[in-house]
Design a protein that fits this description.
It is built from three helices and 57 strands. It has 759 residues and is mainly beta. The strands form 14 sheets. Strands 1, 3, 6, 8, 11 and 13 form a six-stranded antiparallel β-sheet that branches. Strands 14, 15, 18, 20, 23 and 25 form a six-stranded antiparallel β-sheet that branches. The longest helix is centred in the N-terminal third of the chain and has 19 residues, at 2-20.
Length: 759
């Protein structure tokens, strides 16, 4: 109270001076000059001290040095201290100074302290001060248009009370550069203010002690969701931003450090523009502070922050939105018209639960089979066998799309909970059906709705097990009005019903990136194309059938919905003519020993393909298309003995011919090895050397090699029983040659070694 009387008297003197002298002091303060913060009169303050703590307690920095041109906060005031200054038309560009804890309240437990500076609703600087980091220099740029400047100090007292915080020689400067602020509007969510009906909501303007982030740092501006009794459920804050023109929302998300040690259950956060989900994330004690920025759709009326929590043994988490702001920057985004089933007129069975944005009941929080949560949902929980339903009148909605995440509830899968069948109807026609078990994962439902939708109904048929029924959950269900891809014209579609190979569907006159889907007449998907690289795509289908028929073809353009299906007829398969058979005499088979066997086929037409099979019909080789009138194929080994191969021909646009049988001989045998006594070598001087081999059969040849295996000479075929080979020079000294025999139709023999004398 003493410091408030002192400060009140100082304010009174300022008012008298202003009245008597025409406001000369204030005029001087607004002049274009550097100005100490301590020389300005705050419009409003709390826990504020000017120049000294009191007449006997001057300011001192963290090192104990006395300081002037300073202001102080805290000391005995626990919670939030602040000072508000009017800077409109001052034209200051920069604020600089030093923040420090007074050394008199530094040693010992003086709790936590965070200091922040704001330009209107814009956070310029924020710093947590501690006994180990008791001071910091600062210099920040100011926005060009600024009305109010705030110093805010958040404190949590320790065992010895709170710190004393000093802004030392804080000064506004005309030098420097203005802060670059691309936004035309920048409003704190605390300024916009939440609807009074918001649930379990509080902000730092209402809380004297403020909140902490997950690291234990005090928050100077923020919103908190915290249930006082620790039970789970839903919390929300709704902001009416109709016609405000905001295009972005930005905040930081965190759990409060006071509610994370121990079992505080599970928490998910969602942000909605009317019924459109902009952001959703599950937070745990291991989740760091999350920076979150989202665009706000054009035409948004209600902007809502939502948390849904399953309580733990110690209660629930505290959820903090740190420095949440609405901004106007750039161009607003456009999103599909979206409406939640919870806002559509309908009726349902008993035990069916809707968990809307504003639902605060813990039992209505959806939980998927993977244990993740959703912020809104529909839950079918009979408890025993039987049917349940939820039906909606859609005649006034003009929607064409329904999406949700379908799952069974993970709280009801450990044990025998039976199975559940889900069917979804649009205008009394089934558009989706599935049997769910405890092994069913999370399914993304993306269902196109028929035009002129009147009724939408979800039915579950639950066959309970020994522990009850399998709860069915649809997380974040919404109806939407989505742009739809253009329908295909029948003339764009060409269907070829091939004989004995894949059938094809070709669609022309597409836009680049378009995809097509092909269905049978029962609506079963047969194939989906890749994105069109140019203006057409071709889809291959294993078999449409031998007879004539019809397929249904749709188009998908970008993110648009799939078009309606266009009917395209196709004819029956036409059996092509059979290719002419290969003539036996046109096939040559060489059965090689120790290397690939060779099959040559002649008498072909250009682009004919030949195939070789063994005698049992196993395919051995396929040729490339004939460049002229013949092809050559290689087979690793036909076998050592004689045998038979089957050879066929396939001509263009014709079926494969019948197989022609072609015999082949056994692999050739090896010639008999010579004995050294058959070979005579004469090493002549100054003339050719002679190798003579006798006791040969007519027509046999011999080859002569040096000792290194290099071929020296090959004879002609023996006219009778002897051949003579002339070699230019074997050398003057004695040595050795190697000699082999080649009998007609046989392979070369092994080499025999024969010595010879020196010249």
């Amino acid at each position: 109270m003493k410091k408030e009387l002192k400060y009140g008297f100082f304010s009174f003197l300022l008012i008298v001076t202003f009245v008597l002298y025409g406001g000369t002091f204030l005029q001087t303060a607004s002049a274009s000059s550097d100005t100490f913060l301590s020389s300005l009169d705050p419009l409003d303050s709390e826990g504020f001290y000017a120049s000294e703590w009191d007449s006997s307690t001057p300011f001192a920095d963290s090192s104990g040095k006395s300081i002037s041109n300073s202001i102080g906060f805290g000391k005995e005031y626990i919670g939030t201290s602040y000072a508000k200054y009017q800077l409109e038309n001052k034209n200051f560009k920069t604020f600089q100074g030093k923040i420090t804890l007074d050394s008199k309240w530094l040693k010992g437990d003086y709790g936590k302290t965070t200091v922040a500076f704001y330009s209107d609703d814009r956070l310029l600087y924020e710093k947590a001060l501690t006994s180990t980091t008791p001071s910091a220099n600062l210099k920040v740029s100011l926005p060009k248009s600024i009305e109010y400047f705030y110093v805010i100090v958040r404190q949590e007292a320790g065992g010895k009370g709170p710190h004393g915080v000093i802004i030392q020689e804080g000064k506004f400067l005309n030098s420097g550069s203005y802060l670059n602020t691309p936004e035309t509007v920048y409003d704190s969510a605390l300024t916009v203010k939440a609807d009074p009906k918001s649930s379990y909501y509080s902000d730092t303007e209402e809380s004297p002690t403020g909140f902490k982030d997950i690291n234990g740092n005090l928050i100077t501006k923020g919103i908190s969701f915290l249930r006082p009794y620790g039970t789970g459920g839903g919390e929300y804050a709704t902001f009416d931003i109709k016609d405000a023109g905001y295009t972005q929302f930005e905040t930081k998300l965190s759990l409060d450090a006071d509610y994370i040690k121990g079992d505080y259950g599970r928490t998910i956060v969602g942000i909605y523009a009317d019924d459109y989900l902009l952001y959703e994330k599950e937070l745990t004690p291991k989740t760091s502070v999350q920076t979150m920025k989202t665009n706000i759709p054009k035409g948004t009326n209600q902007f809502t922050l939502v948390t849904k929590q399953l309580g733990g043994s110690k209660g629930v988490h505290g959820v903090i939105f740190i420095d949440p702001v609405f901004k106007t920057v750039g161009t607003p985004i456009t999103v599909p018209y979206t409406i939640s089933p919870m806002t559509v007129t309908g009726n349902s069975s008993s035990y069916f639960q809707e968990g809307g944005i504003y639902n605060t009941d813990e039992s209505s929080i959806p939980q998927y089979s993977n244990r993740s949560l959703a912020t809104t949902g529909m839950i079918f929980n009979q408890g025993y066998s039987g049917q349940m339903y939820a039906s909606y009148n859609m005649s006034d909605t003009d929607v064409n799309f329904f999406k949700a995440k379908l799952s069974v509830d993970s709280r009801y899968i450990n044990g025998d909970y039976g199975t559940s069948v889900i069917k979804i109807y649009a205008n009394d026609q089934i558009i989706y059906s599935n049997t769910l078990t405890k092994k069913t994962g999370v399914i993304d439902l993306n269902l196109k709705l028929p035009p002129h939708l009147n009724t939408f109904k979800i039915v579950t048929d639950q066959k309970a097990g020994t522990k009850g029924d399998l709860r069915v959950t649809l997380g974040n269900p919404v109806f939407q009005k989505m742009p739809t891809s253009a329908n295909l014209a029948a003339k764009q579609i060409s269907v070829v019903n091939n004989y004995n190979k894949a059938d094809t569907v070709t669609v022309k006159s597409l836009a680049k990136g378009d995809k097509v889907k092909v269905y049978n007449t029962k609506g079963q998907l047969l194939a989906t194309s890749a994105a069109a690289a140019k203006d057409s795509v071709t889809v291959s289908i294993n078999q449409l059938g031998t007879g004539k028929g019809t397929v249904l073809v749709s188009r998908i353009t970008g993110s648009k919905l799939e078009s309606d299906k266009t009917s395209a007829a196709y004819g029956a398969e036409v059996k092509p003519a059979v290719s002419s058979a290969v003539v036996t005499k046109n096939v040559t088979v060489v059965n090689n020993r120790g290397k690939d066997d060779v099959i040559t086929v002649k008498g072909l037409s250009k682009n004919d393909i030949a195939k070789v099979y063994d005698s049992k019909g196993k395919l051995l080789a396929t040729s490339k298309p004939a460049a002229k009138d013949s092809v050559v194929m290689y087979v690793k080994q036909l076998g050592t003995a004689k045998g038979t191969v089957l050879v066929s021909r396939t001509s263009i646009n014709k079926l494969e011919s019948s197989k022609t049988s072609v015999n082949y001989a056994a692999e050739p045998s090896v010639s008999t090895k010579l004995v050294s006594s058959q070979v005579k070598v004469v090493n002549n001087r100054n003339k050719n050397d002679i190798v003579t081999v006798n006791k040969l059969a007519k027509g046999e040849k011999v080859k002569v090699y040096n000792a290194k295996g290099q071929l020296l000479a090959t004879s002609d075929g023996a006219a009778k029983d002897t051949v003579t080979v002339s070699i230019k020079q074997l050398g003057s000294g004695k040595g050795t040659v190697l000699v082999s025999r080649i009998s007609p139709s046989k392979l070369e023999s092994d080499k025999v070694s024969v010595n010879y004398n020196a010249e």
